[in-house]
Design a protein that fits this description.
The structure holds 3 protein chains of 3 kinds.
Chain A lengths: L1 H17 L1 H32 L6 H17 L4 H24 L7 H23 L14 E4 L2 E4 H23 L1 H11 L1 H6 L4 H27 L8 H12 L4 H26 L4 H15 L14
Antiparallel strand pairs in A: 1-2
Chain B lengths: L12 H4 L6 H21 L2 H27 L7 H18 L5 H20 L7 H21 L12 E2 L3 E3 L2 E4 L5 H24 L1 H11 L1 H6 L4 H28 L1 E2 L6 H14 L4 H25 L5 H22 L4 H14 L5
Antiparallel strand pairs in B: 1-4, 2-3
Helix pairs in contact in B: 2-7, 3-7, 3-8, 3-10, 3-11, 3-12, 4-5, 4-6, 4-10, 5-10, 7-8, 7-10, 8-10, 11-12, 12-13
Chain C lengths: L1 H20 L11 E8 L6 H22 L6 E8 L4 H11 L6 E2 L4 H14 L2 E3 L17 E2 L5 H16 L9 E7 L2 H4 L1 H12 L2 E7 L7 H10 L3 E5 L3 H13 L6 E3 L6 H4 L10 E4 L8 H11 L16 H24 L6 H9 L2 E2 L1 H7 L8 E2 L12 E5 L4 E3 L8 H18 L7 H4 L1
Parallel strand pairs in C: 1-2, 3-4, 4-5, 6-7, 6-8, 8-9, 9-10
Antiparallel strand pairs in C: 10-13, 11-12, 13-14
């Protein structure tokens, strides 16, 4: 028994202390992974914040954006043009979603809207594959997936770029929501559709704006993740990895997505590297969720989520 | 004209409180149940039984379970796959450890095991609500799958890592295992789901169901009038997991024959949730209809090109199938957001008046 | 209001149609043909691997029909059914296509294989799980209807260790070396572990097992541990996106790619594409040679593609890819097994029982391989009643940035370690299904 306690409570820490350079690598790896998750979580947060919809199709949107981008690049479009065109496609998609999904279902309970995004998920899955094919596509964004050593710690160039991009994106978005009129309108809409309508906020425009922004975020997420594993169907499964980030950070908080991502990323990696071998490894998946669950027990709306005032 | 309640008077509380108060309903359902037991085993081919009816019955059971939790008690759960896995693996362990134990008892016990686990993972529901709870139940889902993958004891140290249903008999007829006929397995599944559906229907009409619905609608008000949230929510998790556990055991023993943990992964959870939402939250009939929709529609869509005489590559077929499936879900939600059960209800009300317009 | 009503009516109509018209009867196949179902996955997460496999089968069967007029004048009828690598859909495909009297099936998914193994003797359909599926089914005395020639995972693991020993200078040089096995956290991924552990004990090398959670999109933690461990050799048992990410991470972490060896499902063109140049030097096991230079490919171009029936259409460059060739070999073995059965039962559409005999008495000689235009693509193979694994050999191939090249000789697995374990496992698996052991001597 004491052996077990030693192995769980003492040995991993000794291990960490024993090779601090490696510990730093694990932490950095965790930070980078977490930021990559945040990129995906951001899309969820944006849409939830502004339309109150939990967008099940976010993962597929990331895939779709990446597929469109790679498809255009393969057909010889220069990078800037391809990016612009993909952004246009995502805006078009946002229009279509607003018209077909959101407008008819305005003010329905959350679960119905959630189900609608599930329908959207299947539709985009089939459509994306039909339009661009099911093969793995290489995505080269010009940044080599190489590592360089800084003071004995290995840092990956691609991941560093992704981390910086995520940080910049989040800062921009946070500023957008806090300081601009549209940002304020978005928050109003998230609170109550009908009330927002009644004071004259153009719901349709807001929704198109927010889904477009989420679409652009999806492009960035698709870029980073696609560069790591090639653009293929499994990209849509990253959404599952982003969910613990969401619940930890809170569904409506942009800084929450980052902080949540960092906590989950670092926690996951530390858990897997130092405690994983005790139980045979591959604990990352559930560890992230259990970590998020632990935080939720303390703050049921996530770290930065809006506290729900419940009335009788 | 046919569906008239005029002239049907209830003379006792019991008849007033019957599950199917209208005589036509009762007759119809009874006839349907009898027909279900008798007709398919005689008439339907192996393909119908094996690939369509048996999974439909099993998923209907799981959908009823999830509907109790999500539709009636309002606790959104995405751990269905995990609870089904618990049922399947405990059934496997029980029947290999006690080969003489009747398979019916094995299923029930495995349901209890799943209920225990469900209770455990339902504890966070006291603190966490809504979509947060859903994602928290994913912790249960992923952990349970990892557990069954990791601990070889669950598969009796099989190096293949799969559990296989052995031959077991009920009343002399082999119902599980490779030698069981599709008809025998079908009858077994039907018996289970018919009984459990009846139990569920009575549960939701009674005190327990009402306390669930109270918690779902206004939990603080419910607490004030004396409904105990801890007990009610945990009971919901427990009973729902029981149903899902039995469905999981049936999935391996009556349908697949053998399974690895991949059969219970997150896609299962989503699948059952879709059935519940499409069928109608808070409706037992809805669970049946949703299961039928989700099981039958993809098969229909796969057959459609053949039927229309079109030849296209299987890949394109599958992709269009996905698009149509998603499109139908959307179309359907716009037309009737409350699910198939509501459609049925509207239909029944129209039937009451037919052929008169109002 | 009326629109709503109409929409509702339409919806009810669709639902009714679904129930009524759902599963209709399948088409009946033409007489004088032998039917082979193709369970494929051209969509979904494993499509990048499923497409070359599906195309290889389609092309080879078409070739036999076009070039040879069928197998001894009996044409092959084949039909694809999309299962997205999902076990339930695979079983549904199988049940649906059963109506056409198939004689054999290549499930190409371990999950589906496990479902079909118990059904095989009852439905009388041979299950050919070439290089995957249930390793224990190689013991034909317990599993007469299941064949996994020319090699199983356990044999492959031992061949890998032998290759490492060859590279290090001998089996005795393995002592003290560090080998890591990165595997998909599923029964498939774990297949090699018992054999590797056994060999680690015998030859005193340090084995580290690292599981990667499905689907394997995020492997940072695994490769950090690799970096710390600094193993001499890495063996990867992956599938799907795990492969691409593993190769990429290997490159990013800076391990020596020529010390990284994937198993035969972890070494295809798809796996190395995303990593680009960093994947150069990556190795993998195989038992079918890559490349389109064999005579059979020329036949395929001439008789199939030139006639416009090629599965790849105009994209001939893809003919000869690793998985394409693997399936061509698989299809060839199916055809040769049927041909073998015809020597006993005559040149007519055979039953599953007869084809099973053909599988069990399959003897593909060097001469026959040359006649087929596949000399060097595969080794000669002989299947017996006891040994459904055949006596296949593996080799190691390496990616040079543009294509896969064979870089080793044919390696014999360490059969005296693998076979006893296999036989023990077969007893366990067969007991679950209540099988009795055949006496092969009596059946001769």
């Amino acid at each position: 028994m004491s052996d077990l306690l030693y192995m769980v409570l003492v040995a991993p820490f000794k291990d960490m202390a024993g090779s601090p350079a490696f510990l730093v690598e694990v932490l950095i790896g965790g930070v980078f992974a977490g930021l990559m998750y945040s990129l995906v979580a951001l899309g969820f947060v944006l849409i939830y914040k502004a339309s109150g919809v939990f967008n099940f199709a976010q993962g597929v949107m990331v895939l779709f954006a990446a597929l469109t981008l790679v498809g255009l690049l393969e057909r010889g479009a220069p990078v800037v043009v391809a990016l612009a065109l993909t952004a246009a496609v995502m805006v078009g998609l946002a229009y279509a979603i607003e018209r077909v999904v959101l407008r008819p279902l305005v003010n329905q309970p959350q679960i119905i809207l959630f189900m609608a995004t599930i329908g959207l998920n299947f539709f985009l899955e089939g459509f994306g594959e039909m339009a661009w094919g099911a093969n793995v596509k290489k995505l080269d964004i010009g940044i080599p997936d190489r590592s360089f050593i800084v003071r004995g710690v290995q840092i990956n160039e691609l991941e560093l770029t992704a981390a910086v991009t995520a940080a910049v994106l989040v800062t921009l978005l946070a500023l957008f929501f806090q300081t601009t009129r549209i940002g304020l309108a978005l928050r109003a809409v998230a609170d109550d559709h009908e009330a927002a309508l009644s004071i004259g906020i153009p719901l349709k425009t807001i929704w198109v704006v927010v889904w477009s922004v989420a679409g652009v975020v999806a492009i960035v997420a698709g870029l980073m993740w696609g560069a790591k594993s090639g653009v293929q169907f499994s990209l849509s499964l990253i959404a599952l990895k982003a969910l613990p980030v969401l619940i930890l950070g809170g569904f409506e908080s942009v800084p929450g997505a980052i902080v949540g991502g960092l906590i989950i990323g670092v926690g996951e990696k530390l858990g897997e590297v130092y405690w994983g071998p005790l139980v045979g490894g591959a604990i990352e998946n559930w560890f992230a969720y259990v970590l998020a669950l632990a935080f939720l027990l303390v703050r049921p709306q996530g770290l930065f989520g809006e506290k729900i005032i419940e009335r009788v | 004209m046919i569906y008239r309640e005029a002239g049907q008077f209830k003379t006792s509380y019991a008849s007033d409180q019957a599950v199917f108060p209208i005589v036509q309903d009762r007759v119809f359902v009874l006839a349907a149940v009898v027909a279900a037991f008798v007709v398919p085993p005689l008439v339907a081919g192996d393909y119908w039984l094996q690939a369509i009816l048996i999974p439909f019955l099993i998923y209907a059971l799981a959908a009823i379970g999830l509907n109790l939790l999500t539709g009636y008690a309002g606790q959104l759960s995405l751990g269905t796959g995990g609870f089904m896995a618990v049922g399947a693996y405990s059934a496997f362990k029980l029947t290999t450890a006690f080969p003489r134990l009747s398979i019916i008892a094995v299923f029930l016990l495995s349901g209890l095991a799943a209920a225990a686990i469900g209770l455990l993972f339902g504890i966070p529901s006291l603190r966490i609500k809504g979509f947060y709870l859903a994602v928290a139940t994913l912790a249960a889902q992923f952990f349970l799958i990892w557990l069954f993958n990791k601990v070889a004891w669950f598969t009796n140290y099989a190096s293949s890592g799969t559990i296989t249903a052995p031959d077991r008999t009920v009343l002399g007829v082999t119902v599980t295992g490779p030698n069981a006929t599709a008809a025998a397995r079908y009858v077994m599944a039907l018996a289970f789901v018919a009984v459990f559906a009846l139990v569920a229907k009575n549960l939701v009409r009674g005190r327990i169901g009402r306390s669930w619905m109270a918690i779902r609608d206004r939990d603080i008000a419910a607490e004030i009038i004396g409904v105990r949230p801890l007990r009610t929510k945990l009971l919901a998790f427990g009973i729902s997991s029981f149903y899902c556990g039995v469905a999981g055991a049936e999935l391996v023993f009556l349908y697949l024959g053998s399974a690895e943990t991949l059969a219970f992964d997150i896609n299962q959870s989503f699948l059952v949730l879709f059935m519940v939402i499409i069928g109608g939250l808070g409706s037992i009939l809805g669970s049946w209809l949703g299961a039928a929709f989700i099981i039958l529609l993809p098969i229909f869509l796969t057959r459609l090109p053949h039927g229309l005489g079109l030849t296209m590559s299987v890949a394109l077929q599958k992709q269009i199938e996905l698009m149509i499936f998603g499109g139908l879900i959307l179309f359907f939600l716009i037309v009737e957001p409350h699910g198939l059960a509501r459609l049925w209800q509207i239909g029944k009300e129209k039937l009451r008046l037919w052929p008169f317009p109002h | 209001m009326t629109l709503r009503v109409t929409l509702r009516a339409v919806l009810v109509g669709i639902l009714a149609l679904t129930v009524v018209a759902g599963p209709s009867v399948a088409r009946v196949q033409a007489a004088g043909e032998i039917f082979i179902p193709l369970l494929v996955y051209r969509t979904g997460p494993y499509a990048p691997n499923g497409i070359p496999i599906a195309n290889g089968a389609s092309d080879y069967f078409t070739l036999v029909n076009e070039r040879d007029g069928g197998i001894n004048t009996v044409k092959i009828a084949f039909e694809e059914c999309e299962d997205q690598y999902d076990t339930k859909q695979g079983v549904e495909c199988y049940e649906r296509l059963k109506a056409k009297n198939p004689v054999l099936v290549n499930p190409y998914s371990t999950g589906i294989t496990y479902q079909l193994i118990p059904k095989a003797p009852i439905d009388k359909i041979v299950v050919h799980s070439m290089g995957y599926g249930m390793t224990a089914s190689a013991d034909g005395r317990w599993f007469p209807w299941v064949f996994n020639f020319p090699m199983t995972y356990w044999s492959q693991a031992s061949a890998f260790v032998k290759y490492v020993a060859q590279q290090e200078g001998g089996m005795d040089k393995l002592k003290g070396k560090k080998i890591a096995h990165i595997y998909h956290n599923s029964p498939y991924g774990k297949e090699a572990n018992p054999t590797l552990e056994d060999l680690a004990r015998r030859h005193a090398f340090e084995l580290t097992l690292l599981a990667v959670d499905h689907p394997g999109q995020e492997q940072k933690a695994t490769w950090l541990q690799i970096r710390r461990l600094n193993p001499d050799w890495i063996y990867i048992s992956g599938w799907g996106v795990m492969n691409q990410v593993a190769v990429k991470e290997a490159g990013a972490t800076g391990v020596k790619m020529d010390r990284v060896v994937g198993n035969w499902w972890t070494g295809t063109e798809t796996d190395v594409i995303p990593a680009g140049d960093a994947a150069k030097g990556y190795k993998s096991m195989s038992f079918t040679a890559p490349g389109a230079e064999f005579k059979v490919h020329q036949d395929i171009f001439k008789h199939v593609y030139d006639k416009g029936k090629g599965a790849y259409g105009n994209d001939r460059a893809k003919v000869g890819e690793v998985l394409y060739n693997r399936m061509v070999v698989n299809a060839m073995l199916n055809v040769e097994a049927i041909r073998t059965a015809m020597t006993k039962y005559g040149n007519k559409p055979l039953t599953g029982e007869q084809v099973r005999w053909g599988f069990e008495n399959l003897n593909v000689t060097d001469k026959r391989l040359e006649e087929l235009g596949m000399k060097g693509m595969m080794r000669p193979l002989r299947v017996t009643c006891e040994n459904h694994e055949g006596n296949g050999l593996a080799f190691v191939q390496q990616w040079d940035g543009k294509k896969w090249n064979v870089v080793s000789d044919w390696i014999e697995p360490i059969r005296d370690v693998v076979r006893p374990k296999l036989e023990a496992e077969a007893v366990v698996e067969a007991k679950k299904l209540n099988y009795t052991m055949r006496d092969c001597a009596k059946e001769k």
